[in-house]
Amino acid sequence: xxxxxxxxxxxxxxxxxxxxxxxxxxxxxxxxxxxxxxxxxxxxxxxxxxxxxxxxxxxxxxxxxxxxxxxxxxxxxxxxxxxxxxxxxxxxxxxxxxxxxxxxxxxxxxxxxxxxxxxxxxxxxxxxxxxxxxxxxxxxxxxxxxxxxxxxxxxxxxxxxxxxxxxxxxxxxxxxxxxxxxxxxxxxxxxx
Length: 192
Prior knowledge:
Structural class: mainly alpha
Helix content: over 70%
């Protein structure tokens, strides 16, 4: 992951996530529209050639399968961002390894529990790191997202956009603090 320079830039990651997520929503809707139009067009004809119908239906199905690619890409960008969010949490505050925090999200049914550990957990850690300086409650929205992932997944995906924006801004602040701290430690004091 270190070899991909854009993964350190949260703004680019967030933009890539939003674009891929948007395409992942728009393309399946277009697929349904194309499918309806295809059935209307095939129904309007007396249907003399079945091969045209089969060709049209297979084209719609292929477009529908391709439409899922942006959603898969958005999941990848989400995982990269979540990994980077956790990376900014001090090691002593992490109960699990970075790979486990992301990897266990892909275990069916167990991920319903693990969302609370990975997503709500990073929100709680950011609250702890910011304390009273930042008046945003990172953990409240992350908890709502985790609950919605169980009850109403469609709502959680929309809330996830806002949560990622909030967390992205907080992560940028944390990155800048870490950079300033490292630069401050490397300044020669001129005592020698």
